[in-house]
Amino acid sequence: MSQTQAGWGAGASPRYEDLAARFRPVFARVRATAVERDRAHRLPHAEIDWLKETGFTALRLGQDQGGSDASLPELFNLLIELSAADSNVTNALRAHFGFTEDTLCSPSPDWRARWLGRIGDRQTVGSGVSETGEAKVGQFDTVLHRRGADWLLGGTKFYTTGSLFADWIHVSAQDEAGEPVVALVPRRAKGVAVLDDWDGFGQALTASGTARFADVHLPAELINPTPERFPYAMAFFQLVHLATLAGIGRAASDDVARLVSERTRVYSHGNAGRTRDDPQILQVVGHVRGAAYAAGAVVLKAAEALQRSHDARRAGRNEEADAAASLADVEVNQGVTVVTSLILDATTTLFDALGASAVKEGLGLDRYWRNARTIASHNPRIYRERTVGAFAVNGAAPPRQYRVGSA
């Protein structure tokens, strides 16, 4: 069934259905065991391998590079569908897709060719940016020390989402002079330890815990010569979260509709002889579905703004790319509270269409709210609303980067 036939609206492009058809069988396999994996805390190693085998992790590369030449709206539409299967998997690949954009936009031809080749070979990249230590905002305790022509990396990262599943870890650090340095660290290099110690009540299978680096030797070719990120990076990473929320909404909507259609028990004070005919119950199902639909529409519209910045950067129009990236931040930030509120409400309201049996662990319906609440807590939405207000009233551009640290 196409996305249009399912009532979710047309896809991101005229060719979207053909593109999505390649990956939907894998999405279905991922979804089939999502509840079981959540309950057993079984990390999605196999599921990510399935996606790699189909070329999903190389979506943004050209066809001659082993990819699908997917546009950003197409990518985000597919991330919504993947998130409907399992939002943990989308989150685990977030850093990889972000690094892909870095590479596509890199001004260094050698770096770009080397890493696009590795991505085309189905190698993946995890996150090694955030820390929970005493470093001040904008600084890192993770340090790269020069050793002749090479480097030694030492330090600890947290929120290392996706790194446990990846071939490489994208690490942000500073050198001995305090200058920013970005390196790609082999996941299995001597001195690298990635732990599954993330204990959040949601997104529990993303392995978003600790990574330790103890005198990890890195040749100079693994140090990014241009460490600044792609222009629309802030909007991109936040929009992945919104796409994930939209996918959670779709999955919750599908589940509540199916459970209502299967339900045989009714209340004496209900409105029909069958639950599926009760207009109040149908209203609840429609409310949940409408929230998911609206969330997806916001994501796809915002993805168009990112595409404008990307196109300008690839054409060498850097000032235009920066201006478009700033406006993309505005568009994404405008959607943050809307999408978050819609999905948090929907993943709570869905229980009103069902009886007490809906809270049984075997159904796993609680994971939708837990996962949505966890994603929504990553980047406080109150600050997003403030930056939108500052733009609307004073024409102020949103911040170009967000960092967390001690005051």
Automatic annotation (TrEMBL):
Superkingdom, according to UniProt?
A: Bacteria
The UniProt record lists the keyword Transmembrane: no
UniProt keywords (A-Z) are: Monooxygenase, Oxidoreductase
Domain Acyl-CoA dehydrogenase C-terminal intervals: 240-378
Instruction: Kindly list the biological process annotations in GO that this record carries.
Output: L-leucine catabolic process
Q: Does the keyword Oxidoreductase apply?
A: yes
Q: Name one Pfam family in it.
A: Acyl-CoA_dh_2
Under InterPro entries, the record lists: Acyl-CoA_DH_C, Acyl-CoA_Oxase/DH_mid-dom_sf, AcylCo_DH-like_C, AcylCoA_DH/ox_N_sf, AcylCoA_DH/oxidase_NM_dom_sf
GO MF annotations in UniProt: 3-methylbutanoyl-CoA dehydrogenase activity; flavin adenine dinucleotide binding; monooxygenase activity
Q: Which PANTHER family match?
A: ACYL-COA DEHYDROGENASE (PTHR43884), ISOVALERYL-COA DEHYDROGENASE, MITOCHONDRIAL-RELATED (PTHR43884:SF12)
Protein name stated in the entry: Monooxygenase
Question: Native species of this protein?
Answer: Methylobacterium planeticum
